[in-house]
Amino acid sequence: MSLDIMEQRMASANFYVTLDIFNADLRRVFENCRFYNSPDTIYYKLANKLEQQVNQYLAAHLVFEGDEGWSQGQGREQAQHGSGRGWADGGDMRVKAEAT
């Protein structure tokens, strides 16, 4: 998986029908960067940095179906360890409703 392929899939407007599918591909990009590059390379380090930024964004903008803690804005650690579900392990995601 690569960001180029993800960009093509996004352009088709038919591939990423759920956030889970998009997230799985994005996680694969991060995993590939770490698998195919040694920890001292810029690719490995930037994969970690970008993943951290994505995790922060997801924590602020997504909730998991049936997980009320997310509507309260709890962080990643609570979501992944407290409920046993998270964006890295296949939890069902949806966008948080904006406060009006």
Q: Helix fraction? A: 55-70%
Strand content: 5-15%
Which CATH class?
A: Mainly Alpha
Low-confidence stretches: 70-87
Largest beta-sheet details: 2 strands, antiparallel
H and E string: HHHEHE
On the 0 to 100 scale, the average pLDDT is 77
The outline comes out as flat
Query: What is the number of E strands?
Result: 2
Structure classification: mainly alpha
In the CATH scheme, what's the topology name? Histone Acetyltransferase, Chain A
Q: Between the first and last Cα atoms, what is the distance in angstroms?
A: 38 Å
Please give the order of strands in the largest beta sheet: 1-2
Compute the number of helices: 4
Number of domains: 1
Rg from alpha-carbon coordinates = 15 Å
Q: So, CATH architecture?
A: Up-down Bundle
List keywords for this structure.
4 helices, 6% strand, Histone Acetyltransferase, Chain A, 2 strands, mainly alpha, single chain, two-stranded antiparallel ribbon, 100 residues
What does this molecule look like?
Helix 2 packs antiparallel against helix 3. This protein has about 100 residues and is mostly helical. The protein has 4 helices and 2 strands, in the order αααβαβ. The chain is flat and about 35 Å long. It has a two-stranded antiparallel ribbon with strand order 1-2. Residues about 70-85 have low confidence and may be disordered.
